[in-house]
Task: structure prediction
Amino acid sequence: MPEQAAAAPSPLNIAVITPFHKTPAEIFRQCAESVARQTYPCTHLVIADGPPLPDFDTGPGRLLAVLPQANADYGNTPRAIGGILADSYGFDAVAMVDDDNWLEPNHVESMLATHAATGAALVACQRVFRHLNGAVLPMTEPPEDDFRHVDSNCWLVMRKAFPLLAAWRVPKCASFIGDRIFYQKALRERYAIAATRLRTVNYRTKFATHYIAAGVPVPEGAYPPANMRAKYEDFLRPERIAEITEAIGFYPKLS
Result:
């Protein structure tokens, strides 16, 4: 009998998780449209953190969940809940993008290509830093360039790493470094991580330090350096160290 050709692998079912909280409609529309325009089809799983989306139509390829109240933790709770839903709904992998950022059309496809080439359970990309008005900022972050840091927007998490999605549940006092905790948890648990080295996330930054590094005026609405410094100082208090270590099982590095 003639040898039968192997069946082509089924396409993977990908979710893109977005925490939403009071972002202006025109800015969120840019985010949502960038997910809809992905060259690899995916489902947009939007978790509204308290307030519902204005004039939002779920439509094909988009799912919406509204939490009963805002969590004020930089989107960490919506990310964790999005991960639970993605697992329950049978998705094969999840990517993430915040409601004020947007993706290049090849974002998901390039991440999946790196997974296919390496078999890594986690794939990371890099960011194009953007002004609050959307213009490119002429700067990058050395920790990201050196693969010592991966922003929350820059992950593709394959199903075999879904248990790691619970790492987004961190104490409120550490919520501002949730992405660092997620990455360090992945390293501690020895998940295989691969990098595309492509800048496929457009990151509309609120951090004053990025504007200072780019040599441009800090816009209204950016987080003042003093604000972030206070968070770091609180993070270093002995009682905070004990609280965080007990909650997540280790004390995360800040850089």
Summary: The chain has one domain: 14-248. The mean pLDDT is 92. The chain is about 30% helix and 20% strand.
